[in-house]
């Protein structure tokens, strides 16, 4: 029996996920593999490296730093979340990512990004952390319009949430029999068609398949929610989700708001802890 962890994205809603995975680590609940999308990849990698509280620590430390996330960064670099600062300076110099622990862990860790040429999801299994592996994580979290296209591994990539927002089916295809799914929207959330498609079509007019994927994202997302509910009814999925919409947007500069979202994740995880233990103990 293989147990997997599926981590949805959602930019700063991902701090809910950070709270959840910290509770899992504190209670020695380490699953066999994980897949992260966007913020789920950027914050979820700390689950494999075993670094409790790292995600909330560096986010609150740097949330007001213009190099981390700002309109100035977008104007100067083309990235709302500073690419070099967020994905290289922070993990390599300012809040060190434990590369040795990540490599030593037997857990598989996958990230999802979107191939801008095909509009399809690309699933990358992370190896020992180097510059390119950090670029894969950046690619997974590179929101369209406000981030540069990331070139790595022979691909040109953007946010994985465009093509596969909640990759439960992917984990099932990799042989994970039972999966814990961490959502950053409430259970009853229904995604609506994207707004702002005019700008998306203009900026990515050379990539019609990417635009088509963005236009159809709500259909893909809602279909994935339906599949998750079906697997949950079969006893093959365990869902952890906020009980109501999280009090945060894609961008947040108030550390107390960040801490509140993180605390909500911790609270929900603790409330479901015994049920989760029962789920992963069933054969």
TrEMBL record:
Top-level taxon in the UniProt lineage: Bacteria
Source organism of this protein record: Ruminococcus flavefaciens 007c
Gene3D superfamilies hit by this protein: Cytosolic phospholipase A2 catalytic domain
Residues of the active site: 38, 159
SUPFAM superfamilies in alphabetical order: FabD/lysophospholipase-like
Sequence motif GXSXG, location on chain: 36-40
Domain PNPLA span(s) in chain numbering: 5-172
GO BP terms in the entry: lipid catabolic process
GO MF term set: hydrolase activity
InterPro entries: Acyl_Trfase/lysoPLipase, DUF6363, NTE, PNPLA_dom, YjjU-like
Protein name in the entry: PNPLA domain-containing protein
Motif (DGA/G): 159-161
Keywords noted in UniProt: Hydrolase, Lipid degradation, Lipid metabolism
Lineage: Bacteria, Bacillati, Bacillota, Clostridia, Eubacteriales
